[in-house]
Design brief:
Strands 3-26-25-24 form a four-stranded antiparallel β-sheet, with no helix packed on it. Strands 4-5-6-7 form a four-stranded antiparallel β-sheet, with no helix packed on it. Strands 8-9-10-11 form a four-stranded antiparallel β-sheet, with no helix packed on it. It is built from four helices and 26 strands. The longest helix is centred in the last third of the chain and has 16 residues. Strand 16 and strand 17 form a beta hairpin. With 532 residues, it is mostly beta strands. It has a single domain, classed as TolB, C-terminal domain (Neuraminidase). The N terminus and C terminus are likely disordered. Keywords: Signal. This is Glucose/Sorbosone dehydrogenase domain-containing protein. InterPro entries: 6-blade_b-propeller_TolB-like (IPR011042), Glc/Sorbosone_DH (IPR012938), Quinoprot_gluc/sorb_DH_b-prop (IPR011041).
C-alpha cells in the first residue's frame, strides 16, 4: 500500500510524497501512529544524520564524500564540504572489475560526524572520520594481501571549523591519521560525551573483518591494547600541551597510556560497533553501543573505561553458545586452524571471560538472537565444508543507536532506538530505571524493504529522521539485498501523531520509573535470555 501525506511550507506549494511503508507499519505496537515523508532523496549513501543546534539536519554521504546541511522542512541542501580530493583512491564501486582488477571499496567511506556542543557559541567545530588511503591502490589486481591477508585502508579523524556565514567547513586539523581501515568492519561512529564533567570525542573502530571473507587470514587484534583495531577510542576536543602533534589530541589519563607512549584506546574487545550514543539515565551518564555479531548475538553494550567486551573470545553473552567454535569460518584449507580463520577457536566462553577477569570483562546488556550451539555448529560446519558459503541465520545488523529521553511520545522515554540493515526496521528497547539493562519486549517500527543506516531525533522528540542506504551490499548478514528496495539514498521523516502507552509509575515521579516488582521481573527476563 502506498501512503501519501501532505505538508505545507509557506515557501513552497503544496507537495505530496509517497513512501512505500504500509499503514500497519506506521502504527506502532503500543498504538502509536506516525506519518512519513521524504525529506531528501538521491543522496550518495547517507551515513550520518544529526539534528543540529541550528534546527537543520547535518549529514555525511559515505560514497559521495560530502558534508551537508538539510532544511528538514523543505529538503534544501547546502554542501558544506566536499572531501573527494582527500580520498587517495578512486570510486572503485563505479569502476568495472575488468579495469581496476576488482579492488574493494572500504566499508563506509566518509562516516562519522559529531558537532561540538558549542557549535554556535564560540566553538564552531565539526569532527569527521573517513577513509583516505588504500595500500593496494597502486597494485595489480584487487590490491589486497595474498592468502586472504586483508584489504588495508587508512582512516583519518579531522576537526573542521564551521563558517556559518559562508556555509563552509574549513581549516582542517588532523587528530589522528593512523587508524587502520579495511573493506570490512570499519565502524566509524563519532560521539562527544562527558567524562567527569569534561567533554571528549569517542570513535568506534571495528576489527577490520579480520578472520572472515577477504580478511580471513588477517590477524585479529581486538584484544591487543596496543592496536586501535576492535576498539572504542577517546580523544581531546582541543589539543593539550604535549610535544608531539598527535599526542596532543590524546587524553593523558586514557587507560592504556604509558610514560613511553600515548594511547587513544578507551575500551577493547569490539567487533563492529556502528552505533554510539550517550544519555543520562537515572542520574548517571552512560555511553551505549550497538554492535554487529557474527552468526548470532548482535550486541548492545554500555561502554566503560578500560573494560573488555570479549570479542573474539566471548560472543554475545557469556553463555557457552560458541564453545568449540569461532567468530568466523572459511573453507580455505591453507588458513590453519580448526575453522580456517585467524579468529581463535573458543574452547570455553566461561574460561575466556574468567581469564580476562571479572573486574575487566563485560557482558552486553542485551544480545539479539543468541543462537544455540547446535545451530551455530551446523552453520559453521556447512561453510567449512564448502556445502553452503552463504548460509542464512537470524540477525538484525544494527547500524546505529540513539537514546530517546524526550517526553514527546508516551512510553518511549529512556528507550534505546536501533535502526537495522538486514531487517529494515527500527527497534525500540526500554531501559530500566538505572539505564543498566533492558526490560520488557523488543518493539519494532517502520518495517520496510530498505536498509536503515542512522537516525536523529528532533528536540521535542516528535520527529524521527532515518537515513536509508543507497547501495545494497556490504558484507555478511548486513549485505543482504532486500528485493524491491525503495527510496535508497533518502532521509525519511517519521512524525508522531497520536497514541502510545505511558509507562506506569507508582512512585509519583517522572514517567519511566519502575516498581520493585517490575525490576525483579526484568531481572528474571534478562537472566532467562542469558541462559537460552
Amino acid at each position: 500500500m502506498m501512503r501519501c501525506f501532505l505538508f505545507w511550507s509557506f515557501l513552497l506549494p503544496l507537495t505530496c510524497f509517497s513512501v512505500p511503508v504500509s499503514a500497519q507499519d506506521l502504527t506502532g505496537p503500543k498504538g502509536e501512529t506516525f506519518t512519513v515523508r521524504v525529506v531528501k532523496d538521491k543522496l550518495s549513501d547517507p551515513w550520518e544524520v544529526t539534528y543540529g543546534p541550528d534546527n537543520h539536519l547535518w549529514i555525511t554521504e559515505a560514497k559521495g564524500y560530502k558534508v551537508s546541511r538539510l532544511n528538514p522542512t523543505t529538503g534544501a541542501q547546502t554542501v558544506l564540504l566536499d572531501l573527494t580530493s582527500a580520498r587517495k583512491f578512486p570510486r572503485y564501486d563505479k569502476v568495472s572489475d575488468s579495469v581496476d582488477g576488482g579492488k574493494p571499496w572500504p566499508q563506509g567511506g566518509l562516516m562519522g560526524m559529531s558537532l561540538h556542543p558549542q557549535l554556535l557559541s564560540g566553538k564552531p567545530y565539526v569532527y569527521l572520520a573517513y577513509a583516505y588511503d588504500f595500500a593496494g591502490a597502486g597494485k595489480k589486481g584487487e590490491g589486497c594481501d595474498p592468502n586472504f591477508g586483508g584489504c588495508h585502508f587508512m582512516m583519518r579523524l579531522v576537526r573542521y571549523t564551521y563558517d556559518a556565514k559562508a556555509q563552509k567547513l574549513s581549516n582542517p586539523m588532523v587528530l589522528c591519521d593512523s587508524i587502520p581501515g579495511s573493506n570490512d568492519h570499519n565502524s566509524g561512529r563519532l560521539l562527544i560525551a562527558p567524562v567527569q564533567g569534561k567533554n571528549y570525542l569517542f570513535n568506534t573502530v571495528g576489527d577490520m573483518g579480520a578472520g572472515q571473507f577477504k580478511n580471513v587470514g588477517r590477524t585479529n587484534r581486538a584484544q591487543l591494547t596496543s592496536s586501535y583495531e576492535g576498539k572504542v577510542l577517546r580523544f581531546n576536543l582541543e589539543p593539550d600541551t604535549d610535544k608531539n602533534q598527535y599526542d596532543r589530541w590524546i587524553p593523558n589519563d586514557n587507560p592504556f597510556t604509558s610514560a613511553q607512549k600515548q594511547n587513544a584506546v578507551w575500551s577493547t574487545g569490539h567487533r563492529n560497533a556502528q552505533g554510539l550514543a550517550y544519555a543520562v539515565i537515572g542520574g548517571t551518564g552512560r555511553i551505549y553501543t550497538s554492535e554487529h555479531g557474527p552468526y548470532s548475538d548482535d550486541e548492545i553494550n554500555v561502554i566503560e573505561k578500560g573494560k573488555n567486551f570479549g570479542h573474539p573470545l566471548v560472543i554475545g553473552y557469556n553463555d557457552g553458545n560458541y564453545n568449540g567454535l569461532a567468530a568466523g569460518v572459511s573453507n580455505h584449507t591453507q588458513i590453519p586452524g580448526e575453522w580456517h580463520t585467524t579468529y581463535p577457536t573458543i574452547k570455553s566462553e566461561k574460561d575466556n571471560a574468567a581469564a580476562i577477569g571479572a573486574q575487566t570483562y563485560r557482558d552486553p546488556i542485551y544480545s539479539f538472537n543468541p543462537n544455540s550451539n547446535a545451530f551455530l555448529t551446523k552453520t559453521l560446519t556447512q561453510v567449512r565444508s564448502g556445502e553452503n558459503n552463504s548460509p542464512e541465520w537470524p540477525s538484525e545488523a544494527p547500524s546505529s543507536i540513539a537514546v530517546y529521553t524526550a517526553s514527546g511520545i508516551p512510553g518511549w522515554q529512556n528507550s534505546l532506538l536501533i535502526p537495522t540493515l538486514k531487517t529494515g526496521k527500527l527497534i525500540r528497547l526500554q531501559l530500566n530505571a538505572a539505564g543498566t539493562d533492558v526490560t520488557g519486549d523488543t518493539l519494532t517500527y517502520f518495517k520496510s524493504k530498505i536498509r536503515y543506516r542512522d537516525l536523529a531525533i528532533s528536540p521535542d522528540g516528535k520527529k524521527l529522521y532515518l537515513a536509508v542506504d543507497s547501495s545494497t551490499v556490504t558484507s555478511g548478514p548486513s549485505g543482504e539485498d532486500p528485493k524491491g528496495s525503495h527510496y535508497r539514498g533518502s532521509i525519511l521523516e517519521f512524525t508522531y501523531v497520536k497514541g502510545g502507552t505511558a509507562l506506569k509509575n507508582t512512585s509519583g515521579g517522572k514517567t519511566g520509573g519502575k516498581t520493585q516488582t517490575d525490576s525483579k521481573a526484568a531481572a528474571q527476563v534478562a537472566d532467562k535470555r542469558r541462559k537460552e
